[in-house]
Structure formats: structure tokens, C-alpha cells
């Protein structure tokens, strides 16, 4: 059974930093790209970032480019989202999702499994 | 700036068929955008319904189907049920590792 469990959310002041983690299980982690998707309160879903299966390729939404980085540790089956220079508009539930780009095995331009999300609140 | 467009809301009677669409602010949606569809009820994580235009995700009933209709991607629900009342989002792959969500459609079944 595929499971994605996010952690690391919380309250942070504007300009601060936070690192989210997503622990995966139930599939060969390195065979799949991993993505982060967020949802501001009462708003729709927004794709944030994706990392390829091997970790060599990363992509970001314009809204977070230059402030967020994505990385993965395939030995731990975990993907991370480092968020710096946080703004009030980054307040959202952040979901980890399997898929969204390519690995050495295949390309999957969609998300097939989702975590339950972790809430990030940026406020003074 | 490319915008992915969806109907903000839609209402359907139980048992009826409804088609939600996913378009582009500029241009046409084709299979090359690998359209996918997700269902989300408030407070829950999204659920994957359709990917690569018309492939149903595991466990999704066959009354959900995907297609290209004209210049848009489409999600058709045949025989709508009360528990189909949800928000529906499409996603398009824009190339260069970038995906864009549509604004979502709030479907009411009444």
C-alpha cells in the first residue's frame, strides 16, 4: 500500500524558513518523481515543485522560484521542501504527491497518490 | 502567463450526466498536455480520477471518463450520485517540468 506522510508544518514568521518532509512507502521510491502541491485556505490547488526520480532535475512554480528548494534522499524514501523567505501568501496546506515528472524508468505527468497534507502558517 | 480554465461551478441532478471542461487561456488542450483530473471534498486530500486524458485511476468507477472535446479536456460523470458532490480540478503538463492546475469546479448534485 502506497503511503505518503508529510511533516514539518507549523507557524513561522514572515521572512522565516521551514523544511517539510514527506516519508514514502509501498513503492520503489527512486523510480518516481515526487511533487509538492499546496492549497491556501478556501482556495484551489497549486502545483509548487517537482523533483525527478534520481534527483537531478527540479522545477518550481514562478511563485516560489528562488525561495524554495526541493530535494530527496532515496535511501530514506523521503522528499523535502525547504522554504525560505516565507510570505503570508505561502500559508497553505502542503501536500506531497507521487509523480509529476520523469524518472529513469518512465514519465508520469500526473499525481497518483497523495499525502494528507501539513499546514504551514506564515504570520507574525 | 498561461491560465488553465474551468467552470467555477456546476449543478446536476442525481442520475444525470455532466461534463466538466478544462481549457487554456490561449490555445487548445490536446493529449500532449497529458490532462489529469482530481476530486477533492473539503478537508480531504485530493483523489486522482483520470490521467493521460482518459485513463481511469485504480478503483475509480467507470461512470467517470475523460476525453478531449473540441479544444478542451473534459471529465464526464455519467449517472451523477450524491457523493459526487465535490470540487474537481484538472492539471495540464506545460512542458519543462511545469504543471498547472485549473481553478477548480464546484459540483453540486441536487
Explain what this protein looks like in three dimensions.
The complex is a heterodimer of chains A (124) and B (110). Chain A is mainly β and 124 residues long. Chain A contains no helices and 11 strands. Chain A has strands at 3-7, 10-12, 18-25, 34-39, 45-51, 58-60, 68-73, 78-83, 92-99, 111-114, 118-122. In chain A, the strands form 2 sheets. In chain A, strands 2, 4, 5, 6, 9, 10 and 11 form a 7-stranded mixed sheet that branches. In chain A, a hairpin with a 6-residue loop joins strand 5 (45-51) and strand 6. The N and C termini of chain A lie far apart (40 Å). With 110 residues, chain B is mainly beta. In chain B, 0% of the residues lie in helices and 51% in strands. Chain B has strands at 4-6, 9-12, 18-24, 36-40, 47-51, 55-56, 64-69, 72-77, 87-95, 98-101, 105-109. At the A-B interface, strand 5 and strand 10 of A face strand 4, strand 5, strand 9 and strand 10 of B.
